[in-house]
């Protein structure tokens, strides 16, 4: 039995995308292969960029932004899957195509997505003074969500066991690098650039206020009725059933929702179901050490 399990794991690992480093940050190999093109991507002044660490509320923010831009028109937001409406600039996959090509084919004004840390962001975004929305999520929930995403997504390396993944995440040896460097880098940059920095936990607690904040930043004035419509349509339960937002249209060979759905729980505090007492103590110690040089703070429940 154990032998069969090992064999299955080996087959699965062979089917998965490999990874390599770009300037010390782990990335899927297809991204590494076109890195020069990504780095030299030409942003336009009216581009809007949504940036997050993976599994920090990216798709949620994308759907909200798309609805704000279309004044709450639900039908317009169903025109195409989210990854087509808002291209993921550094993503390359044989079955899904190139985010870069999709971005270059879009008419202006474009809305784009990235998971890149600020140091790897194509310089043209800051040079052209683009508006950037950043969403940060507490690292414990972020880790749990990313772990499950790795399990179901063959376009990422196999996470191993929860215990193994816990170590990898803590060491920053996961795709898109260290959570600490990511959230702190963008936090520092927000004072020099047009960056709206939001927190996943605030969006859960007061979705209407945070959506209003986003609308003002984008430059759209929304009335109460439109705001309420967006709050409803972007609630977790509604988005989970929306094929244009839940990634269910991606081939099962890449994303297997029966292992773990792309939209799994969307809650705050789920980490308590995974962290052992020892892991939690270890994490708290690591968090304290890594966050002492920043004014950034997070809500864990």
Automatic annotation (TrEMBL):
<keyword id="KW-0808">Transferase</keyword>
<dbReference type="GO" id="GO:0005737">
    <property type="term" value="C:cytoplasm"/>
</dbReference>
<comment type="similarity">
    <text>Belongs to the sulfotransferase 1 family.</text>
</comment>
<dbReference type="GO" id="GO:0008146">
    <property type="term" value="F:sulfotransferase activity"/>
</dbReference>
<feature type="domain" description="Sulfotransferase">
    <location>
        <begin position="45"/>
        <end position="294"/>
    </location>
</feature>
<keyword id="KW-0963">Cytoplasm</keyword>
<protein>
    <recommendedName>
        <fullName>Sulfotransferase</fullName>
        <ecNumber>2.8.2.-</ecNumber>
    </recommendedName>
</protein>
<dbReference type="InterPro" id="IPR000863">
    <property type="entry name" value="Sulfotransferase_dom"/>
</dbReference>
<dbReference type="InterPro" id="IPR027417">
    <property type="entry name" value="P-loop_NTPase"/>
</dbReference>
<dbReference type="Pfam" id="PF00685">
    <property type="entry name" value="Sulfotransfer_1"/>
</dbReference>
């Amino acid at each position: 039995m154990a032998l069969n399990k090992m064999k299955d794991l080996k087959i699965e690992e062979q089917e998965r995308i490999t990874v390599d480093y770009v300037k010390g940050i782990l990335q899927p190999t297809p991204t590494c292969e076109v890195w020069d093109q990504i780095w030299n991507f030409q942003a336009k002044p009216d581009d809007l960029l949504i940036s997050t660490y993976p599994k920090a509320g990216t798709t949620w923010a994308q759907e909200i932004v798309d609805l704000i831009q279309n004044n709450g028109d639900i039908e317009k937001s169903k025109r195409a899957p989210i990854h087509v409406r808002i291209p993921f600039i550094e993503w390359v996959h044989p079955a899904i195509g190139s985010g870069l090509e999709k971005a270059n084919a879009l008419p202006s004004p474009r809305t784009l997505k990235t998971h890149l840390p600020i140091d790897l962001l194509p310089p043209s975004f800051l040079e052209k003074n683009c508006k950037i929305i950043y969403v940060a999520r507490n690292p414990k929930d972020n880790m749990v969500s990313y772990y499950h995403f790795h399990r179901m997504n063959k376009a990422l390396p196999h996470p191993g066991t929860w215990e193994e993944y816990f170590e990898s995440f803590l060491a920053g040896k996961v795709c898109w690098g260290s959570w600490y460097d990511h959230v702190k880098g963008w936090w520092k940059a927000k004072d020099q650039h047009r960056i709206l920095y939001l927190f996943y936990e605030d969006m859960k607690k007061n979705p209407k206020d945070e959506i209003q904040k986003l609308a003002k930043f984008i430059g759209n004035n929304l009335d109460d009725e439109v705001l309420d419509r967006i709050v409803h349509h972007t609630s977790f339960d509604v988005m989970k059933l929306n094929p244009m937002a839940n990634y269910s249209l991606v081939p099962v060979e890449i994303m297997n929702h029966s292992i773990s759905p792309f939209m799994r729980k969307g809650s705050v505090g789920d980490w308590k179901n995974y962290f052992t007492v020892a892991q939690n103590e270890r994490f708290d110690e690591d968090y304290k050490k890594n966050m002492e040089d920043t004014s950034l703070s997070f809500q864990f429940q």
